[in-house]
Hints:
about 400 residues; 4-stranded mixed beta sheet
Amino acid sequence: MKILAAAVAVVVVSIGSVAAYAVWDVTRSIKPSIHLAAAPGQTSQAVPSVGAIEGGVNLLIAGTDSRSGLGGVYETGDEQDASSGAGNNDVTMLLHIAQDHKSAMVISFPRDLMVRIPDCPAPDGDGTIDGSSRAQFNTALSRGGVPCVALTVGELTGVQVQFAAEINFNGVSAMSSAIGGVTVCLATPVEDEYTNPQLDLPAGSNTLVGDQALSFLRSRHGVGDGSDLGRISNQQVFLSALARKVVDGGVLANPIQLYGLAKAATANMTLSDSLTPTTMVQIGLALKDTGLDNVVFIQFPSVTDPDNVNRVIPSESGAEALSDALVKDLPVKLTGTTGVAAEDQTPPAAPVDPAAPPASTDPSAPADPSATPADPGTAPANAAVELPSSVTGQTAAQQTCTKGNN
């Protein structure tokens, strides 16, 4: 018994040491953080304590196109002229996890969306940057950094961003390597000479990692109709494949693996001061039992700008339905397509045998005495909001393939 007790003690201490080392190893790689400003009339929410995260989550990811400080191929004059300094938020996504953790959305905002940008705190902490009644969405980052992007997204959606992170090109490459690459399906070959490195991918399954994954996510000319909206649906093909890999590999149920990903994130992203390594792990654990069918990727509803065919504006009906679902913390149901650069390959549901009687008609089935007859005119309180068919996207469970622009 003494030997057994000693062995158990060694195991417990070892497990605790591994977890403690994981936390320390992640913490030491954290970069200076970003402070998010509260929207008018709202107060900043407290950072969750250690343990399972409680309530809902609104996490913003802003991808900057700045080449400053990246080195390598980005040091050429052409690359620096393309974007330097703070850069633009050419990729912006909002992860919304419901209060009960039973559903989640990932909303992608078009870079060419014309919106109102509110007054934002100056990046140097001295004063305020004046807003604009009409400006291109991807200029928010260069105006006032990630806090300005967060406030702009808050105005568009009606929810306050609690957590945020900024990532650059090198960070995307490193993160794709940290997860061991992502295998995506291509319905047709994808070629893009404008990415760096250039893309020349055959149809079929392709495992993308490092700079090749970055080029795939950045590609605009090589997918769909060559537009930024096509690029969004292509990114959703990648993200849904990533979600399936993470879930199938049991990563969300393994805190040590989550801390490993948190380490990669802290080393390659600039995080808000509310987004600690432990909080990142808590957010991951919140999605453990959500289910792939209940994670929905959505392109923010938009239509062509009547003043400029190269820009888009919010779709009134679609944006209102999406905002209503976010504010009321309701799940959503897509009724539209997967977008111009994605093709749904999910096998159709098995046909229902019309001769088979429904289970509820079995006369031998005992009645549930606690059941209350439902009012046919009343929808459940947490019923999914059906988005207009003009809104594109997919669930994480949908197996989609990218369509090349050829």
